[in-house]
Design brief:
seven-stranded parallel β-sheet, alpha/beta, two-stranded antiparallel sheet, 15% strand, TIM Barrel, binds iron/sulfur cluster, 363 residues, 11 helices
Length: 363
Amino acid sequence: MRIGRRIVRPSAVAAVLPPGWTRTELPAFRKMAIAPVLPQWAYTAAAWDEERQCHVAWALHTDKRRHWDPATHSTTDLPERVRSRLARDDNPLLRQLAKCALEYRCFTAQNTFYERDEGAIPASSGCNARCVGCISEQPEEGPPASHQRIRRAPDWEEMAAIGIAHLARAPGRTMVSFGQGCEGEPLTRAREIGEAIRRMRQATRRGSINVNTNGSLPGSLALLIDAGLDACRISLNSAHKPLYEAYYQPIQYCWEEVEESIRLARRRGVYTALNLLTFPGVTDQEGEADKLCELVSRARVHQVQSRSLAIDPDQYFALAARHSAGGARIGIAGVIARLKRARRGLVIGNFARGLNERGPRVA
Ligand code: SF4
């Protein structure tokens, strides 16, 4: 392969899947002693299929809706859209979103400039967790993070202005979401975000206001719901306390508070989704699947968004070997089937559901 001016002969191969797919198998490789810790990508088994004369990867098509199709993002007119928006609006948060849209190619940030569907509002420069595979901040000895964490937290005026502009105008699955890949934990800024949400709801009743969070601070989540939040997505790699805490390395919170946030959101009538960071060989162990099914049924969540955890496979296996709930593999497809049996009407998909997609709520 030519990479820039260099010709490289790769000795190991993997695929990275587009949005809407969930990985089912890991790539086969053996690491040499000098090998670095790999950066955060969801390495997926890939190969050449002699019979079909094409490349193949191991994955499930878990969300068939087209609005996150790469073909409709990073289009040639995007840089001009960004430039003209920045020319007419000096909101500092827009400059961050411009970097996210053009440099990181974040589709949610791009939607802010396309003025459609789900737009992004990054809010927090700090986090109360130290996830081993954090995509916005890695320790010195870790691999390079795939995003640079935002350095300056926006104030509520900046966030409200972005939100009002998007909710008032964007067609489609109109939504704004706090808690993006380039930031820390939004619940650590509940007061500012709460004020921004209140101002948005004073300006328009259109669309949905969502937060993507680690669910660490139920009291702060309640403040956002009081302000008008109507949807939340809580991230987890496991519903088994030892493995959750070994991966998230929480600071002054624990698994029980995450579960309390999920229950609180349900009790308050908020559309509640789990952001399940899946990893073949761990998430699909019998014991892990049991814990997930118990949680989904007990907390009565509406949706499980299945994501492929982006981390060096050996790094995660080393963690899981000591902390996972264990048991035989049932396959990622097996986990999804069991989740659907554990909770009637549970939605499995990769993407947030817009207001008009949330259907009749199952009690
Ligand atoms: S919760 Fe998010 S921002 Fe915080 S450490 Fe984990 S991945 Fe990083």
